[in-house]
TrEMBL record:
PROSITE patterns: IG_LIKE. Residues 129-211 form the Ig-like domain. The chain crosses the membrane at residues 225-245, 257-284, 290-314, 334-355. Keywords: Glycoprotein, Membrane, Signal, Transmembrane, Transmembrane helix. The keyword Signal applies. The lineage of its organism: Eukaryota, Metazoa, Chordata, Craniata, Vertebrata. Residues 394-425 are annotated as: Disordered. This is Ig-like domain-containing protein. GO terms for cellular component: cell-cell junction; membrane. It holds the Pfam family Ig_3. CDD domains: Ig.
Amino acid sequence: MGRAPSPIPVPWAEPPLLPFPPALQAAGPVHRAVGSSVLLPGLENITHSHSTRWEFLNGSGPHPILQHHGGVLPPAIHAAYAGRALFHPSNGSLLLQDVQESDSGTYRVTGDRESLEIQLEVLYPVSRPQLWASSLVAGATGRLVCEVAEGRVDSISWRKDGQPLAPGRVSWLSSSSSVLHLSPATRSDCGSYSCNASNGIGWQESSLEVAIEGLSRRLKHTLRMAVVAVVFAVVSAWGLIIPVCQSQKLRIRGELWRWLSCYTCGLVCIACVLDGAAGVLWMWEEGPSVAVILPEITLSYLTVVTFLVATTVLFQPADFSHLKSKKAHRTMGYAAPGAVLAVLLSSCFLIRSVYQRHEGGCTKFMDVTVLVASTAAVVALPLLVGGGGGGGGGGGGGGGGGGGGGGGGGGGGGGPAPPRHRPLL
């Protein structure tokens, strides 16, 4: 029986490995609030993968989260994620619970042939913006400020009466505050402004009703001074008219007449000072103007003259008898009435100018009713008391004083004079 031929040995070669480089995919960023849960999607072909691995990537390298080898075996979860990482084998997704800002970063899920990277941002919600305005006066530069105290702010948008505002009027003070510039502020800027702050997980909005003041604080003082000057001038005019309108029997005479004349001249002097100060404040705010400078010069002159008349009547009334010049008599006699007229004209001009300036804003005009009433009541009280006591003074008789009071037609009651001289006021 013949022997079978022995097999020829064939050398064995290891089959080459087919290269399957991972197909790296990048998903869009996912935003979540601090303390919430996030579900990170798995690979599309997870059913064909024998193992799945989740990792967290940051600057120091990959940190393993879990490894799943397929089948019914539970995944091996890293200790740092135990209790808050849940894996779904059916689709390979990962549920992270109670995420914090430190969880922000890139998460990578790797299968047999592909991997997927997901960017996660964990944010604090933005707090309600604080919206406030600087002093807003017509013609001046103003600004509205929107500040967010908590949470990362990605964008801040502005609206006026529901309509978006041009970005050119907005600037950033910091990463969490924005400024809307009103330069210059005008009446058209009045309205409701809203500030909307947002990030990847939500938004908050605040609104503010904005009113543009027509008058600055300096112009408000100008208005008050001009109004008080008018009250003083009107009461002074009343004091000048009272002696002229009284009958001979009731005419104020003697010492009472001297005191009331001094008081009236003093009021005129104060009115000139107040009106002059109001004009200075107006020019300080609006700039020099011929329409204000000329009355200022006149008021300065009348202030000096009425002051001299008032002090002379009060302390040295006999000095009027030494005035021999008719020009001096006329100057002293018509100073108070002329000053009253000058104050009324100048103050009314200032009040009208202030009102026109107020029209540039949208607030109500300043109410001066209480100021007028209280000033008039206080200033007119001495004249009311003096006028009521005039009859008694006449009965007691200062005949010379009565004669002096009756002789001065144009300015009766403005200043005393000896019996044999014409009254100066």
